[in-house]
Amino acid sequence: MAANYARISLASLTAPFPGCPGIDPGIVERLDRPAAVRHWLRAELCKTVPHALAEARPDVLLLDLAEERFDLLVLPSGLILNASLDLVESGLLETPALAGARRVPRLSAEAWDLWEAGLARFAALATSLPACRIVLHRFRWARRAQGTAVLPAALAILPGQPIVRAADHDALLGRLQDRFLAVFPGTQVLEAPPELCLADPEHRWGLSPLHFVPAYHRAIAETWHSLEGTLP
Question: Which of 51, 124, 147, 190 lies deepest, with the highest CB count within 10 Å?
């Protein structure tokens, strides 16, 4: 894998319009955060992914829409950010550079429209990579946990945020994936059997609808290895 970008939404992957000012990368470099987190935040704030893709000319892009659970932020400049845990914990939202950010709830119609616009920009970007194959990890939120553990029907996406129904976010994820596949019909799908979509009560980051049991990850790895023979 040449590069990994996490905590980014398709809505926030690219600048919303030509000439939209980005954020000075210096504010990221000064953060006392792990290198991987700084890499992700730099990509999010400075919109570096399009340039990185143009330079790398990758053979394969593997996408996962798990980060589409976070609210969106719209700055006065029009720049869009994904309000991920890493961005919140970085403290950057309290800096002048991100002052005035307006929160857009992820389940709102406005968030869907912003995502649709981002998907269209990504589709335009993908045309500059005609030899690149796209693979989508398609999944749903776990509805059951392994063993006797019980998944909550409602939860806060981030600490201190309003409680939301897990089923609503699961439905949104399904809708987003269906829309992505409609725009990119040639996408290869990476998917585990539904019976393995179980939350892991022993997961190192705790019980969550997105923290799957080891058997799920093994199935995904096996499917990926079987796909590799069909990829460039």
Answer: 190
Neighbour-count burial for 189-198, b at 16+ CB within 10 Å, e otherwise: ebebeeebbb
For residue 47, report the phi and psi dihedrals to the nearest 5 degrees. 55, 55
Domain of 211?
26-228
Condensed to tens digits (0 to 9), the pLDDT of residues 121-143 reads 999 999 999 999 999 999 999 99
Instruction: Tell me, yes or no, whether 97 lies in a domain.
Output: yes
In a domain, residue 20? The reply is no
Asked if residue 178 has pLDDT above 60, the reply is yes
Q: Residue 5 — left, alpha, or beta (φ > 0 → left; ψ -120 to 50 → alpha)?
A: beta
Listed in sequence order, the residues at least 6 apart from 188 whose beta carbon sits closer than 8 Å to its beta carbon are 133, 134, 135, 136, 227, 230, 231
DSSP 199: E
Global pTM value: 0.94
